[in-house]
């Protein structure tokens, strides 16, 4: 056998070993006592897109905390595992790609339930109501989208807020320059540094931002889009979906939901 052939055979052998090792690594999923399959044994792996306070953001120590985190912790507890959070772009979350590829078991990202997303994800029962809100710097309030003609309006890429604004601009033929930012932090930064004169996002995240940065920004207008947030699992993962819904129902009936609401959101809106 000549040297070249030797080298080729060695390479093939190495590839084969690599493939086997690769398999073993992919195969580290687990099943809980209750028969729920998990992508990683001993953990409930959650995909989210940071930051999105008060639903998910890093605290001073770098730990991811928030309303969604606390609710999914209840699901993990039911499964007797701990929650592990993966920060990943919103696009892969809402498209179902991350759940389909086994990056995570559940998506918890302040994500609105929409008909389009229902085609590619299975949503839990709704766990939070939200609307869209227009924020501006204090003293620079605008009440309507019409007033933004010729100006720059910021939105968060891939979100229902972006969809809402793009539809309004089209339907009403508004001459607004809509600028999409990759995450909430970039959008809020753009508003703070005058790159945009107004920014649209879900009302609760503006309320949180105003609490954290008093006096800087105001909610100048609201759009009652009647959105509801849902957690999502891979299409067809009925066992995990049931566990999520059971945990939510239990939390609502035993007062845990209200406690978590008070901790992360504040005073509960009157029913
Ligand atoms: N509720 C909006 C939507 O579903 C925004 C969600 C953004 N969430 C996040 N974690 N970045 O489109």
From TrEMBL:
Alphabetized GO MF terms: ligand-gated monoatomic ion channel activity
Domain Solute-binding protein family 3/N-terminal: 43-268
Domain of life per record: Bacteria
Record-linked SMART domains: PBPb (SM00062), PBPe (SM00079)
Source species: Paractinoplanes brasiliensis
A cellular component annotation (GO) from this entry: membrane
InterPro entries assigned: Iontro_rcpt_C (IPR001320), Solute-binding_3/MltF_N (IPR001638)
Pfam families according to UniProt: SBP_bac_3
Every Ionotropic glutamate receptor C-terminal domain range: 43-267
UniProt cross-references to SUPFAM superfamilies, sorted A to Z: Periplasmic binding protein-like II (SSF53850)
Cleaved signal peptide residues: 1-24
Name by which UniProt lists this protein: Polar amino acid transport system substrate-binding protein
CDD domains with a match to the protein in the record: PBP2_Arg_Lys_His
Keywords of this entry: Signal
